[in-house]
Amino acid sequence: MIFYRMMRRNAAKLTGDRSAMLDLAHGRLVVLSSFFAIIYMVLAVRAFDISVVQAKFWNMEDAGAIVVAEAPEGKRRGSIYDRNGNMLATSLDMASLYADPYLIADPEKTARGLSEIFPSLNFGKTLRSLQSARRFVWIERNISPRQQEAVMQLGEPGLAFRYEEKRVYPAKNEMAHLVGMTNVDGRGLAGVERSFDRMLAKGQDVTLSLDMRLQHALHREVGKAIDDFNAMGGAGVIMDAHTGEVLAGVSLPDFNPHEPGLSEAAAHFNRLTLGVYELGSVFKIFSTAAFLETHDVPMSTTFDAREPIKVGRFTISDYHAEERILTVPEVFMVSSNIGSAMMGQAVGGQRLRQFYEDLGLLSAMNVEVAEVASPLVPDRWGEVATMTASYGHGIATTPLNVAAAVATVVNGGYLIEPTFVHAGEGDKVRDNRNKISVISEETSYKMRELMRLVVTDGTGKNADVPGYRLGGKTGTAEKSGAGGYQRKKLISSFVGAFPINDPRYVVMVAVDEPKGNKKSYGYATAGWVAAPAVQRLVKTMANILGMAPDYDAPSYEHPLRQYVALEG
Amino acid sequence: MKMHLKTALVLCFAILSGAMLVYTSQRVHDAQRTLRMARAAVQKETQTTRMLQAEWAFLSAPDRLEKIAGEKLDLEGGAPRIIPSFEVLRPTTAPQMHDASFSGDAGEHIGGHE
Questions:
Q1: CATH topology of domain A215-563
Q2: pTM
């Protein structure tokens, strides 16, 4: 200012050109000073803004949060839950640790610290990595929050994290075939992950009809049957008999979805929905139902099972040959192929085929997993096909197809289409159930009586659970191979429903190529292999579902006993 | 330096407008930040919830619980008979009636039949 006043005083003494020049200089000086003053003011205001006004936004935690918020939304894949809200699959941001060796202050100390946090790390290798000339070195992928905390405690500026989305399957192997898995890019490769890929990719969650507890029980029992009988594999399903909701579905062997590459190719094959098998005598449920539906005859109607039937070059005989005349309940109870073939003949080829079609046994299921097989049906449905299809040979279908058809037969005759998606609870579901009637209530009732008889007095005795009135049917089928059916390679299965007076659950266990053991006296038939597995399963289910046993319930099969010649 | 009134007014208006603009933009900026932070917090909480759910699912997996119950507590799967029915739970003796006297007007009827 003093300098400015001096200039003004001097300028006042000057006149002409010199005065004008001084004015110009004075003006420039004012403009320049103003410019710098404004700049300093702006900087001061901004400094105040950042350091005081916005201070709350700039602590480390918030800064971290903002970074997270800036990640594109909706990118995260949706989760998959079971019917009780238990998580079956989800995507988690997993921290992966990397190092910038250039910034590592003390490589030896850091390598030692890391080796302590991650026991799988080799000290020497880690040290070499940290001393390398590179600017980026992966130390460990997908570390836990606790390990991440420990790494941060090391205080090493050269260590940093990258967040990667990782698909996690808490149920591991137990749900592998149905829940499926994704590839490294997060795209569904199998199971529900594949069939609901678009929905999950949008971040929407999926709730399945499966129950983790029942799934475990089924997985355990099918696994035990496989182990006990040194079998090749197996499948099992638990289904709601009224809604078709699959509560549990198992295919063994299975795989760990976290490390699918470690399993053999066979373990990735879903036997429940993709495997088609000739399941043998369980088909007698359908042929007998067809017979009772199309013929208004009493249960005392007889079939001559004294001699095997010869049809062309084929001979149909009984495994447990009674060699006598059998009533309808006896045919079913002792699982007579001859009697069932005769029933099939009585129904007629076209009508039997149509009946199977109506039950959904001859077409691929419309379910929410992509891995679904079409049943194998004879090209020409002649007399032989009619007779063999009556006892489950010459026609191959999936275990899930069979379980759904059994649900249709026992629930009053209403068509059941299986589903893996949970629709909801209570009356809403029952109201929504498909009301297409395939068989009459009366036939359904008779079939339930017959199925109960199999468990109380027939081939399925080993499946009985006192107090729960399980009804069912055994099926032991020889596998077909080169040169025809192979007597030693069996598929042993049992399909049942309980409580049989008003079935709520359909259960099925099928075991592939079981070998007889000491306990089974060398037998590998369904009554020895699959029936005990179902018995154990029903016991566990009762506990899980809180179903109290009813020991005083009237004997459901009692009316049929008059038509049966019982031993002893 | 003479400054016309009009110029002064324009300058004041410009300064005022500028200040308001700065203030408004600052407010918008703050609001955006707050929103981002709220979203971030929600996302963080969601992620934490997912993590906890996954951890819970791992820890409460039936096979794990079964294994632990067998190894540590020597427990086995229960049989259906352990599930009680109402008949079992019904008391075997009639509950004792305590001698209770109800105060009130004489002749007042307190529920029940005759």
A1: Beta-lactamase (3.40.710)
A2: 0.79
